[in-house]
């Protein structure tokens, strides 16, 4: 879950808790106050009934009832039971019918009436005395309006709760989206920065807050990275340049040596080995030089229009020099009818380095078994498939073969540095292309490169 959603959720849960507690408080408070006032009205009526019952003068009794009738009126389902003698059979009968708990009766005293509520009905018990006589009045009534009011209040609170939750969550999301906007912006900008555009910087916002601090910290880090990258890059470039000249001289001298007539066979073999190995070393230094160039800023290079089939023929020539016994066959059967689909815009030297690395690997890791190169095209790309019958790449390592200096676990019998494929990958990506790899251990590997035609 994103932090943004987490904040919206926490905000909602917190608000839900507060609104729920407030709703419960309002409900309890309203319920107490409505039932309190209803009990009070019932007690007033129970008092009148009790006093009427204690009145010996019957004309006065009717005055009580008249008063109650005229000024107070009846409550819904109002009922009074007057008990003169609590031990009488009638009293027992009434108690059995009302079926109230014993605690209710024990609460009743002359000062305080007892109150009880069960299944919508309110019960009041009062003791009323006059002179030496007293009566117990048990009154019941149903607060129809109060109950309806409470039901309304409950519905109102539940609806209000749900509506407010909807708003709280929506505003919570908007609010957290607003807060995280600058952070998302930073993430997007940082994602766009890679080895090719290390000079790019985040734009710190004007506010002097933590976010602009974060941008500034990123920018400082990028400054340091850029310097380190440039130093490393310059070193690799310079070292490769320095190595190139003596290597060219060595291979040239070896070729001159080979052309000396009447040379004994062991001297020819030695010159051949010197020539091959210096070509191999030259290829490696060229790769390192290209890696330094493509790793930093590919745009420095010169781009031109070139044909992929011609490029692959050049690659084959270079491979023949390094591994004369190779078994690479170029298959032109799948060439597209439309020649335009073979024309790319790119850097010839770099693309040659990329493809020769892939093809050389295929020869190397298959011990010079046949390597098949197919050139074809689809609607967007000129496609080159390079298939070998070599040792393959273990499944779980296939994702790492484009990582610099990575070598698979089954390559211990083969020389290598883990530079060639990352370089090829860099170069092809620089040309807006992509590379797919399919491989099975001990069966072979297929590299499929896609480069957009012009
Ligand atoms: P290396 O110098 O080791 O060949 P690369 O960068 O050219 O370095 O290749 C990286 C790794 O990818 C190799 O070490 C090897 O494990 C694997 N790999 C590349 N091409 C092949 C292939 N055709 N067959 C089997 N494994 C390959």
Automatic annotation (TrEMBL):
The molecular function GO annotations come to: ATP binding; phosphorelay sensor kinase activity
Write out the transmembrane intervals: 7-30, 156-175
Is the keyword Phosphoprotein in the record? yes
Q: Residues in domain Histidine kinase?
A: 238-454
**Entry-linked Gene3D superfamilies:** 1.10.287.130, 6.10.340.10, Histidine kinase-like ATPase, C-terminal domain
Query: Does the keyword field hold Cell membrane?
Result: yes
* CDD domains (UniProt xref): HAMP (cd06225), HisKA (cd00082)
What reaction gets catalysed by this protein? ATP + protein L-histidine = ADP + protein N-phospho-L-histidine
> What is its membrane topology?
Multi-pass membrane protein
One GO cellular component, as annotated: plasma membrane
- UniProt main location, coarse: membrane
Query: What PROSITE patterns has UniProt attached to this entry?
Result: HAMP, HIS_KIN
Q: Where is the protein situated, by its record's location annotation?
A: Cell membrane
Q: Where is the HAMP domain?
A: 177-230
Matches recorded under InterPro entries: HAMP_dom (IPR003660), HATPase_C_sf (IPR036890), HATPase_dom (IPR003594), His_kinase_dom (IPR005467), HisK_dim/P_dom (IPR003661), HisK_dim/P_sf (IPR036097), HssS/ArlS-like (IPR050398), Sig_transdc_His_kin-like_C (IPR004358)
Q: What is its EC number?
A: 2.7.13.3
Q: Which UniProt keywords apply?
A: ATP-binding, Cell membrane, Kinase, Membrane, Nucleotide-binding, Phosphoprotein, Transferase, Transmembrane, Transmembrane helix, Two-component regulatory system
Q: What is this protein called?
A: histidine kinase
Species lineage: Bacteria, Pseudomonadati, Bacteroidota, Cytophagia, Cytophagales
């Amino acid at each position: 879950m994103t932090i943004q959603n987490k904040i919206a959720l926490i905000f909602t849960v917190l608000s839900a808790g507060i609104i729920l507690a407030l709703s419960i408080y309002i409900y309890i408070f309203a319920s107490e106050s409505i039932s309190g006032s209803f009990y009070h009205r019932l007690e007033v009526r129970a008092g009148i009934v009790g006093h009427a019952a204690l009145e010996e003068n019957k004309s006065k009794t009717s005055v009580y009832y008249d008063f109650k009738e005229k000024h107070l009126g009846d409550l819904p389902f109002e009922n009074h039971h007057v008990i003169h003698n609590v031990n009488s059979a009638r009293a027992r009968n009434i108690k059995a019918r009302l079926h109230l708990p014993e605690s209710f009766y024990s609460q009743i005293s002359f000062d305080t009436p007892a109150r009880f509520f069960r299944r919508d009905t309110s019960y009041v018990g009062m003791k009323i005395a006059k002179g030496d006589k007293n009566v117990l009045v048990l009154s019941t009534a149903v607060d129809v309006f109060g109950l309806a009011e409470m039901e309304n209040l409950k519905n109102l609170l539940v609806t209000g709760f749900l509506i407010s939750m909807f708003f709280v969550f929506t505003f919570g999301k908007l609010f957290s989206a607003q807060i995280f906007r600058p952070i998302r912006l930073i993430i997007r900008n940082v994602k766009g920065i890679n080895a090719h555009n290390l000079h790019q910087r985040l734009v710190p916002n004007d506010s002097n807050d933590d976010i602009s601090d974060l941008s500034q910290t990123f920018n400082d880090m990028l400054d340091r990275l850029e310097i380190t990258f440039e130093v490393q890059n310059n070193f690799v470039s310079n070292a490769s340049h320095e190595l190139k000249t003596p290597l060219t001289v060595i291979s040239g001298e070896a070729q001159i040596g080979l052309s000396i007539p009447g040379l004994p066979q062991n001297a020819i073999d030695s010159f051949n080995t010197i020539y091959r190995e210096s070509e191999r070393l030259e290829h490696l230094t060229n790769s390192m030089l290209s890696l330094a160039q493509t790793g930093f800023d590919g745009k420095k290079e010169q781009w031109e229009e070139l044909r992929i089939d011609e490029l692959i023929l050049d690659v084959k020539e270079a491979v023949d020099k390094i591994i004369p016994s190779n078994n690479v066959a170029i298959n032109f059967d799948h060439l597209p009818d439309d020649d335009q689909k073979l024309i790319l815009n790119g850097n010839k030297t770099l693309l040659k380095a990329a493809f020769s690395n892939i093809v050389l690997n295929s020869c190397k890791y298959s011990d010079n078994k046949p390597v098949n190169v197919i050139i074809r095209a689809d609607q967007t790309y000129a496609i080159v498939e390079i298939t070998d019958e070599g040792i393959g790449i273990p499944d779980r390592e296939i994702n790492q073969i484009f990582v610099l200096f990575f070598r698979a676990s089954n390559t211990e019998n083969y020389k290598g540095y883990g530079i060639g494929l990352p370089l090829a990958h860099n170069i092809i990506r620089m040309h807006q292309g992509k590379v797919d790899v399919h491989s099975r251990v001990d069966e072979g590997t297929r590299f499929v490169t896609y480069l957009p035609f012009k």
